[in-house]
Design a protein that fits this description.
By secondary structure, the protein is of the alpha+beta class. Helices cover 17% and strands 34% of the residues.
Length: 65
């Protein structure tokens, strides 16, 4: 999987389209703080903050931005 595209920092919907078109196997995992989110920064978009390659699949960690 060394040719996995650099999707770090991309919005999930854009990265997902790119990865699916390239035939890459990936799994999305969401991370979030334990405390309630601050409403003034509430946004429905997800952004990729980490990519970890494991065997034949990439684990893509996202957070709400």
């Amino acid at each position: 999987m060394s040719n996995f595209p650099d999707v770090l920092g991309m919005e999930l919907d854009v990265a997902k389209t790119l990865l699916e078109a390239g035939g890459f196997a990936f799994r999305v995992v969401e991370t979030k703080p334990d405390r309630p989110p601050r409403t003034e920064y509430d946004c429905s978009k997800m952004r990729i903050i980490k990519v970890k390659e494991q065997e034949d699949i990439a684990i893509v960690t996202v957070c709400k931005i």
